[in-house]
Amino acid sequence: MAEKKTSPVSVHLFDKQNLRLMLVGALVVALGMILMIGGKSKDPSVFNYNEVYSFTRVTIAPIVIILGLAIEIYAIFKKPRA
To answer: Can you tell me the distance from the alpha carbon of 9 to that of 21, in angstroms, rounded to the nearest whole number?
Structure first.
């Protein structure tokens, strides 16, 4: 009896929706990093406490990064459509 040759079936771990969500999550994390960078100082020889520890850098940016990581986790665990 001759053996039947079967071609390997390619199974994708993530579908397009998962990959889009991962891209959105990565962009949100990148936005948080950009917010954390802030702007440049007017006078680099002077330490400006309010610019370094601004509300955007200390509060908003970490929240945006955590939101992006939550989107990434959701995108990884979301089951593809059947």
So the answer is: 25
CA 64/CA 72 separation, integer angstroms: 12
What's the number of CA atoms in the CB half-sphere (13 Å) around residue 68? 18
- For the segment 26-34, the average pLDDT, to the nearest whole number, is 97
Residue in the block written with tokens 């006078």: 43
Is residue 28 a contact partner of residue 68, using CB atoms and an 8 Å limit? yes
Task: Kindly provide the residue ranges of all beta strands, DSSP E only, lying in 11-56, ordered along the sequence.
Answer: none
pTM of the model as a whole: 0.79
pLDDT of 32: 96
